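Revision sheet: structure tokens.
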Amino acid sequence: MTDHSIDQIMRLAPVIPVIVIDRVEDAVPMAEALVAGGLPVLEVTLRTPAALDALTAMKAVKGAVVGAGTVLDPAMLNSAIQAGAEFIVSPGLTDNLGKAAVASGIPFLPGTANAGDIMRGMDLGLSRFKFFPAATSGGIPALKALAGPFGNARFCPTGGISAATAPEWLALDAVLCVGGSWVVPSGSLDPVSVETLAREASALSRH
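Predicted:
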């Protein structure tokens, strides 16, 4: 099943950078800085015209594991797979997307915010989820309560998490990693700064 490999991907580093990229030429230096800083798993969100080309370019960086985020439907899933995505992240979970992702065999991390979402994922054989949007969906108390009935589920909280709050999330048994955009600040790319932020993030300890 795909879960074994999504589990491995989630354990590679404590933080998965959530990347919104506008310029394809930034892709390789950004990926090199993140990998050098100890964050090999890169989620390129499909929110910009440059995203798919950037994802393909980042795959050339040694040590990078590059996936597509903000995947909303089977058509976007197919585009991401054709661009070379090694895993898929979605903000939520629908039957259409879930079945297509599972059928494709690609490691899949669907977004969930409540028990019904998690149960829908488990019906598809999934047990690794993104808790999204983490900060506004009840935060740590909500995830603790959700994790209770679902002992096998593990999560990557994403949305509103910062360098300051990440350690509190990573201390939870149900959390394997967190997603964060703070390691790739918006604006013009500064690879030295990105590598420094990545190094700090990769040093965060998990439970």
